Amino acid sequence: MCTPSHFEIAYAINPWMDLDTPVDVERARLQWEVLRNTYLSLGHRVDLIDPLPGQPDMVFAANGGLVIGGRAYGARFRFAERSAEGGAYAAWLTTHGYRVTEPTRTNEGEGDFLALGAMILAGTGFRTSLDAHIEAADALDRPVVSLELVDPRFYHLDVAIAVLDDGNGETPADIAYYPGAFSPHSRRTLRDLFPDAILCSEDDALVLGLNAVSDGHHVVLPSAATGLAEAVRRRGYTPVPVDLSEFMKSGGSVKCCTMELHR
Ligand code: ARG
C-alpha cells in the first residue's frame, strides 16, 4: 500500500474525477488507515511504498504492477499524469527481490489484471492495451483471458470484477462481476467460464462494490455495497465493509489501494 500523503484530485482522467469535488485530506488519511488496519487485523502483512510528491494517484497501489510468484510485470500508465509511478513501483519490487519484466505496452497493473488460479483475467478498452495482455502472459508464463470493458464508469477490470476465491487452495475459483461493464462477447466468456458467479447489481457496482480484496474467507469491500455484501455472505464468505468514500472521488476503493503479492 502507499500512504495517501499526496492524494488529491489534481486532474480528471476518468468519469469519477471532478476538479470541483475536492478530497477531504484528513478523512482520506483516516479511511486509508482503517483499510490498512483491517488487513493487519485479518493477519495479513502490509508493506508500504513511499509516495512520490506530485503523484496524487500513487495511493492506488494496484496499478503499480502484477505480481505472481517471484515475478512481476511492471506498469506503463496510459496518461502522462501517472507515468512516474511505473518506475517507482518497479524499483520497489526489484529492491524487494521480485524479478520485474519492464513493460513495452500500456498497462495499469492489477487495475486491469486479476490473478485467478492458473490464469490471468485481463481487461482492455480504456487503459490497458490488448498487446499488453500477450506481454503479461509471456512475462508471467500464465494464460491470459482478455475481456473488453465498454462502460467508461468501469474503466478498469478491478471495478467490474471481484475475485472472491482465486482457486489456488482446495476450492474452485469464484468471482462476482457486473455484466453491464462488458461487451457482449466478453459477457459470454464470463458466463462460460464462471456459470455460478455472483452477478453484481448496477447500484452496487456504482459504489465500486466490486473493488474488493478477498483472502478466500474475508471479503474486504466498500461499505456502501450492501447488496453485494449480502450475496457474498450467503455464499459463505465473511464480508468486511470499509468506507473509502474519499477515494471514490478519484474512481478508486479497496482493491485500487491494494497491490496483492500473489504467491
Ligand atoms: N484516479 C485513478 C485513475 O484514474 C484511479 C485509479 C483506480 N485504480 C484501480 N485499480 N482501479 O487512474
Task: Please characterize this protein's 3D structure.
The protein is of the alpha/beta class and 263 residues long. The chain has a single domain (25-262), classed as L-arginine/glycine Amidinotransferase, Chain A, CATH 3.75.10. Helix content is 26%, strand content 19%. The protein is built from 7 helices and 13 strands. It has helices at 25-41, 83-95, 130-140, 184-193, 202-205, 226-234, 245-248; strands at residues 65-68, 71-74, 99-101, 113-116, 119-124, 144-148, 161-165, 174-177, 198-199, 213-214, 218-222, 238-242, 261-262. It is globular, with a radius of gyration of 17 Å. The two termini are 17 Å apart. The mean pLDDT is 97. Arginine binds at residues 13-14, 17, 57, 60, 62-63, 82, 111, 156, 158-159, 250-252, 256.
Secondary structure layout:
Blueprint: H1 25-41, E1 65-68, E2 71-74, H2 83-95, E3 99-101, E4 113-116, E5 119-124, H3 130-140, E6 144-148, E7 161-165, E8 174-177, H4 184-193, E9 198-199, H5 202-205, E10 213-214, E11 218-222, H6 226-234, E12 238-242, H7 245-248, E13 261-262
Parallel strand pairs: 1-13, 2-3, 5-6, 8-9, 11-12
Antiparallel strand pairs: 1-2, 4-5, 7-8, 10-11
This protein binds arginine (ARG).
Residues 13-14, 17, 57, 60, 62-63, 82, 111, 156, 158-159, 250-252, 256 line the site of arginine.
Protein name: N-dimethylarginine dimethylaminohydrolase
CATH architecture: 5-stranded Propeller
Helix share of residues? 25-40%
CATH class: Alpha Beta
Report the β-strand fraction as a percent range.
15-25%
Order of helices and strands: HEEHEEEHEEEHEHEEHEHE
Radius of gyration equals 17 Å
CATH topology: L-arginine/glycine Amidinotransferase, Chain A
Number of domains: 1
**Spatial shape:** globular
**Count of helical stretches:** 7
Question: What is the overall pLDDT average?
Answer: 97
User: Separation of termini?
Assistant: 17 Å
Protein name: N-dimethylarginine dimethylaminohydrolase
